[in-house]
Design a protein that fits this description.
Elements: E1 4-7, E2 10-13, E3 18-24, E4 32-39, E5 46-51, E6 58-60, E7 68-73, E8 78-83, E9 92-100, E10 116-117, E11 121-126
Parallel strand pairs: 2-11
Antiparallel strand pairs: 1-3, 3-8, 4-5, 4-9, 5-6, 7-8, 9-10, 9-11
């Protein structure tokens, strides 16, 4: 397992942007596929975005497609979630997740696939 720390959450008005960051504890996470999930108040955890460890493949939920972008920077050992055109329904605690995998081009969209989770960062979008 790897320890994950998210940052970048906060309060933003609808239509605004935020960039979430996820920093794994390991010096290198090159063989970890990464994902972002969120849990809104009174809701189940839901998939947001995923990226393969090569960075070549990504996946998004329909609710965030064309508004959010997941990326990773191997040199900085970071994973990001750029969130644009935010809506009040995006309000949630956002969690970063990691999965060790031998498949460089594969992403994972199911929460049960992941081995490690961060504590989360709160994102609140006001109308």
């Amino acid at each position: 397992q790897v320890h994950l720390v998210e940052s970048g959450g906060g309060l933003v008005q609808a239509g605004g942007s935020l960039r979430l960051s996820c920093e794994p504890s390991r010096r290198t996470f090159s063989r970890y596929a990464m994902g972002w999930f969120r849990q809104g108040p009174g809701k189940e955890r839901e998939f947001v975005a995923a990226i393969s460890w090569s960075g070549s493949s990504t996946d998004y939920s329909d609710s965030v497609k064309d508004r959010f972008t997941i990326s990773r920077d191997g040199a900085k050992n970071m994973v990001y979630l750029q969130m644009d055109s935010l809506k009040p329904e995006d309000t949630a605690v956002y969690h970063c997740a990691a999965k060790l995998t031998p498949y460089s081009g594969r992403y994972y969209s199911a929460g049960d696939d992941y081995d490690s989770w961060g504590q989360g960062t709160q994102v609140t979008v006001s109308s």
